[in-house]
Amino acid sequence: MADRMAIQDKAYIGGRWVAGNQGCFEVDDPACGEVVARVANVDLDQVEQAIDAASEAFESWRMQPAQARCDRVMAWQRLLLAQQSRLAELITLESGKPMSESMAEVAYGASYLKWFAEQGVRAYGQTLPALAGGRRPMTIKQPVGVVAIITPWNFPLAMIARKVAPALAAGCCVVIKPAAETPLTALALVALAEQAGFPAGCINVVPSTDAAGIGQRLCASTKVRKLSFTGSTAVGRILMAQSAAQVQKVSLELGGNAPFIVFDDADLDSAVAGLMAAKFRNSGQTCVAANRVLVQQGVYEAFVDKVRTKVLALKVGPGAIEGNDIGPLITLEAHRRVSQLVERAVAAGATVSAVGTALPGRFYPPTLLESIRPCNPIWQQEIFGPVLAVSRFDTEEEAVELANSTESGLASYLYSDNVRRVMRVAESLEFGMVGINEGIISAAVAPFGGVKSSGLGREGGQEGLDDYLETKYLCFGH
Questions:
Q1: pTM score
Q2: CATH topology of domain 4-254+453-476
Q3: For domain 258-443, which CATH number applies: 3.40.309.10, 3.30.160.20, 3.10.100.10, 3.40.50.1390?
Q4: 470 labelled catalytic
Q5: Which of these, 355, 351, 377, lies nearest to 364 by C-alpha position?
Q6: 3-class DSSP state for residue 207?
């Protein structure tokens, strides 16, 4: 595993590595519960120092040529890839996910750095047609200012890269609050940013166990002009309300309850492969994980038989051991939550169709549940674990109605070889993203985000850069 002598355990404020005024908090390995590091626990005064450092750095960073800013981001990307194995070891060490997934996460995060390093030089304004009286209108794009970034534990590198890269490329400076469960990857990532030559104050990292207090302080600051948060819908609502007092721009990527629809004209082998990828990555602990599997009556038995075989073949164990597919859940509390949700589902009429390997600790066995009705608790909540909940449907209209019967609207998936049906259903699904005959949909070139209670704004694509820019209108008199 990672060379623990190289683990960074300090906060990073104003270009300096500093101890936490609140002492330290422990970070453990979910696979065994062993404490792997004690990380600086900052207080609210240090958060203010980070905001001040970002605000001061912003005045000069925003004035640098776009190419100079983007060159720094690209240098960071190269360092990231050069340290891919070490970063992957850190991700697995503190999150528990299999090493193959951690390696993929580093590459995925690096793709955002590359994309926004290239897009940041294309923050174009417009010259508009002349107005009456010879007036000349035009628009320019300018950075929003200091950005507060709050990231989750399930993708400790990629979520930072996806937010920080466009912010820096646009000319913003950032204060990052990483998840307390996984701060080591964030700190290692920023250590590489320091090597890439970003000026002091451009990037600040404030690890802490006081997520609520720091979130409130970031939202209350008049110097913070934008908040970008990935996490639960409940917390997103709180942050959105708190940020309203300062009328901060807000990007929220919140909870999901993704439907995965399999029609009777689908390629079943492809659909099974897509489902396994969409469901069991990171042990089901992703916001875009397939949560509700809807299978048309005519292919239900054949499809579920194939899925059952795949579920039982999944290898459960520590992510550091090559070949394991399912690592531990992030905490014992997460394990209890999934266990209780499955118990409630069975009590409400679900049947357990397959259970994979069960190991002690935080490992939850991959599980297949059938006979799920829309009123079942597991149909209404984000599972965030390696549990498949499968139900039948008869008609296309029924499938769409069932899929849309949730307050969430992040990701959705459908499998069909009928191009007309694909277009009808894709347009009818009330979700920000639709995977069509595909289980892995995230990409740096495409906008990532949801509708309804799944959030506001987009990350990735041109839209991801626009979220860190303001459009200013200039009108020149004759």
A1: 0.96
A2: Aldehyde Dehydrogenase; Chain A, domain 1 (3.40.605)
A3: 3.40.309.10
A4: no
A5: 355
A6: coil
